[in-house]
Structure formats: C-alpha cells, structure tokens
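TASK: fixed-backbone design
INPUT:
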C-alpha cells in the first residue's frame, strides 16, 4: 500500500538525487552539505544484515524494519554504488530542453547527449530538420 508518507519519502529522495547530480555537474564532486544529507538518511534507516546461502550464491542481504527503511536503503545504496563504480564526469543531463532526466553515458566515445535517442534525441533532430526546411 502506497501511503502519503512513502510518497513524501520518494519525493525527498528524488530531490536528494537531483541535488547530488547538480553538485557533481557544477562542482565536479559532492559538496559537504550533500554528504551530510546522505549520512542523515543512512542514520535514520533501520536496516539489519542477514546471510543468504543457497546452492549457487552466498551473499549478504539488507532488510529494513519498515518499507520506508527498505526504500531508503535501496535508493541510497544504488546512488552511492553508481557514484563509486562510474566516472562522475559521465553523469550528464539530457540536452533536450524539455527533459529533466540525467543519464550515465557509457558510450565508447563518451559524447552521448540525450537520455534516450528514440525520444529526446529524435525530437531534437526532427525539430532542427523542420526549422531548417520550414520555408
């Protein structure tokens, strides 16, 4: 069941993610303020660690006391893993003027401009074409 509390949490975490991306884009790194905010979310999350053992896999699993804890952990963990495993200079904002998305540029040349070529890239190229041949 999605409650108002969960919706509020998701909006907060979306805002935090955007702050992280803006900080990286403008400063090239995370500001101390952002790091403090991330630490607060981590400290407010009640997670237990469990050992998962089956025939093919041994792993640690993290279980929150509440669904709010689970959601917070998953989002913060994914955000930190992305920053840890990828060059932050490859995290970019989409060049389409109406798009608010950021993406991880994993292209070989590192020159990707759009979050998705089929939507944003195509719209921009089509717009440029129609402007060029309008008259």
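OUTPUT:
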């Amino acid at each position: 069941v999605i409650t108002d509390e969960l919706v509020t949490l998701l909006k907060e975490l979306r805002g935090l993610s955007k702050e992280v991306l803006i900080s990286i884009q403008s400063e090239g790194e995370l500001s101390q303020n952002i790091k403090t905010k991330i630490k607060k979310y981590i400290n407010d999350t009640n997670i237990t660690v469990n050992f998962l053992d089956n025939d093919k896999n041994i792993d640690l699993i993290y279980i929150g006391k509440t669904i709010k804890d689970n959601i917070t952990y998953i989002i913060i963990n994914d955000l930190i893993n992305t920053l840890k495993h990828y060059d932050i200079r490859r995290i970019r904002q989409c060049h389409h003027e109406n798009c608010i998305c950021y993406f991880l540029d994993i292209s070989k040349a590192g020159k990707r401009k759009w979050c998705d070529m089929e939507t944003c890239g195509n719209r921009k190229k089509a717009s440029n074409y129609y402007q060029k041949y309008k008259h």
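COMMENT: Residues 90-134 form one domain.
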